[in-house]
Amino acid sequence: MVDAEAPFLEGGEEPLAGVSDFRGRPVYHVTSGGWRSAIFVAVVEGAGSFAYYGVSANLITYLTGPLSHSNAAAAAAVNVWTGTARLLPLLGAFVADSWLGRYWSIILACTLYVLGYGMITLASTLLAQQVAFFYASLYLIAVAQGADKPCGLSFTADQFDPDHPSECAARSSFFNWWHFSIAVGIGIAINVVSYIQENFGWGIGFGMLCTVMICAFVVFLLGIPTYRLHVSIASSDTSMKMKMPQPTWRRHAAC
């Protein structure tokens, strides 16, 4: 009875095929997706890039300073960590496509981001024997990158309907602003965060990154009621199967 009346609740508009909200209910153009949802995701992705480069840009200085590594050991450690962070998205994409989905992968990534940056802040301020704890926090951040990076942009694309003319145009515009904003954020992180770390203290610098990620996670959670979640597999006992969404590359081509 509720399903039959749902379209009339939105002024007669039909629900989007193959899409639901976080509770599995049908969604509509006027109440979900588009810029209203994409902005929430963009905040998380921008904060993630800002925080990552805020750590990596000055990491060798921290390793050779407070942790007393040699230049060679510090360079090797940074290379291994960076390589791990770059490769883990391959595993993260597989896990997201096979089990978690993009939405839950981003939730997991945000949780690991907050935990990792919180641990790295503690390692730089409170702990006497900090080397092992510091490296554990670094690789926790790398795991978070692996869960986040394959899903952020794709999940944002899911918020725009490629068959809706205005949303298709809005998506192209949004992607332009997305990459511009990420580049600006990285530039600020490399210069400003490094300056704060060296002149005001490592704990303050790392703590600022943790605070940024906590705020970004809260923003992402605020957008949950508006997100469009694409259905990947139809239930075998469902009487009416929903239309499967097109792959991301085909939706781009349609625009």
Automatic annotation (TrEMBL):
Q: Where are the transmembrane segments?
A: 33-53, 73-96, 103-120, 177-196, 202-224
Query: Per its UniProt entry, which superkingdom is the organism in?
Result: Eukaryota
Localization, per the record, is: Membrane
Q: Per UniProt, what is one Pfam family of this protein?
A: PTR2
Q: Which keywords does the record carry?
A: Membrane, Transmembrane, Transmembrane helix
Q: InterPro entries given for it?
A: MFS_trans_sf, POT_fam
SUPFAM superfamilies referenced in this protein's UniProt entry, alphabetically: MFS general substrate transporter
Gene3D superfamilies recorded for this chain? MFS general substrate transporter like domains
A GO MF label: transmembrane transporter activity
User: Topology relative to the membrane, per the entry?
Assistant: Multi-pass membrane protein
What cellular component terms from Gene Ontology apply here?
Answer: membrane
Q: What is stated as this protein's family in its record?
A: Belongs to the major facilitator superfamily. Proton-dependent oligopeptide transporter (POT/PTR) (TC 2.A.17) family.
Q: What is this protein called?
A: Major facilitator superfamily (MFS) profile domain-containing protein
Question: Organism, per UniProt?
Answer: Aegilops tauschii subsp. strangulata
Query: What lineage does UniProt assign to this protein's organism?
Result: Eukaryota, Viridiplantae, Streptophyta, Embryophyta, Tracheophyta
